[in-house]
Write a structure and sequence with these properties.
Blueprint (H helix, E strand, L loop, with lengths): L2 E6 L3 E7 L5 E8 L5 H19 L4 E6 L2 E2 L5 E2 L11 H9 L3 E5 H10 L9 E7 L3 E7 L2 E2 L17 H7 L15 H4 L1 H10 L7 H9 L3 H25 L3 E5 L6 H13 L9 E3 L7 H14 L1
Parallel strand pairs: 1-4, 4-7, 8-11, 11-12
Antiparallel strand pairs: 1-2, 2-3, 5-6, 8-9, 9-10
Bound molecules: zinc ion.
Zinc ion binds next to loops.
């Protein structure tokens, strides 16, 4: 059976068609209708119809999008305002006359990374996305752990450890989730830039920091080492909570190769006894993880 995966963001909707061995057969994208719910639903339905016709199939449908999707399929997202409070899952299932899987995009990333090319799915995998925001997905034996309120993985909104705040004299930053001191404010892309400014450097963006780091510049190294100290503490807390076999990083900051060399040492600084850091790996599927994970979520829902 074919699988259709949707990666839906604030600017575009991408569909990808996969065969049963998770090989991508085709993909295309259209702009996202962000302010008109019926136009949004029609766009998704039309893309499914096109895929059905093109492949003479009735594929499973899985959707990944940013935001919180509760257990009833109700969506809360800032990127696509027209979806807020809508029963998207129910509406799509009724109109498509088939089961649909809807999953948060970071959980989709984690699922994609947890299910390998050979379809192995035995490990406990924590996928951590370091990008515009910071969030994670925990997959156990190929299944996403969502939790009672479907917020398991929103670890970017846990509070920065007192050790770090004291050590670097960080201000407690207000987060747009309503809480303050969230790790996301220090570990996201803009968090890295904040760390740089806090240490007294005037990098204009994260790209400049990474370029300088690769040139061996000591200022950039100071910034990244502080960032790694915070990330190491953050991941050590996840190790103590979930003890994953492997941590897979995603998002823009996962492209910094230096992270992978140094991070295990920083994690172990914050683990007791002789506990070792799990393997911390770069993503295997890169930019296609969003559609891939969504397609896999749709397959799970259909079976
Ligand atoms: Zn927050």
């Amino acid at each position: 059976m074919l699988m259709y995966g949707f990666d839906i963001g604030g600017t575009k909707i991408e569909i990808a068609i996969f065969d049963s061995n998770i090989n991508i057969l085709d993909s295309w994208r259209v702009p996202t209708p962000t302010n008109d719910y019926s136009a949004f639903v029609s766009t998704v339905l039309e893309m499914v119809k096109q895929a059905d016709e093109k492949f003479s199939s009735q594929g499973s449908v899985g959707i990944g999008l940013p935001g919180v999707i509760d257990r009833d399929g109700r969506v809360t997202t800032v990127n696509i305002p027209c979806l807020c409070g809508k029963q998207l899952l129910e509406d799509l299932e009724r109109k498509l006359n088939r089961k649909v899987g809807i999953v948060n995009d970071v959980r989709a990333f984690a699922l994609s990374e947890a299910i390998t090319r050979k379809n192995h799915e035995s490990e406990t995998v924590l996928g951590v996305v370091l990008g515009t925001g910071v969030a994670a997905g925990l997959c156990i034996n190929g299944t996403i752990h969502l939790g009672k309120s479907a917020v398991a993985g929103e670890i970017g909104h846990s509070c920065i450890h007192a050790n770090l705040q004291q050590k670097y004299q960080f201000p407690i930053k207000q987060c747009n989730c309503g809480l303050s001191g969230c790790y996301e404010k220090y570990l996201s892309g803009s968090g890295l830039l904040f760390v740089s400014q806090h240490l007294g450097f005037d990098y204009a963006d994260t790209h400049e920091i990474v370029t300088d780091l690769n040139l061996g510049n000591s200022n950039a190294k100071t910034v990244i080492n502080c960032y790694l100290d915070c990330l190491g503490q953050f991941l050590a807390q996840q190790v103590l909570a979930f003890d994953p076999d492997v941590i897979i990083l995603g998002g823009g900051l996962s492209n910094i190769e230096y992270l992978y060399q140094e991070l295990p040492n920083y994690v172990e600084e914050y683990l007791f006894g002789d506990l070792k850091s799990p393997h911390i790996l770069a993503p295997s599927f890169g930019d296609s993880s969003g559609v891939r994970g969504a397609a896999l979520a749709g397959r799970i829902e259909t079976h």
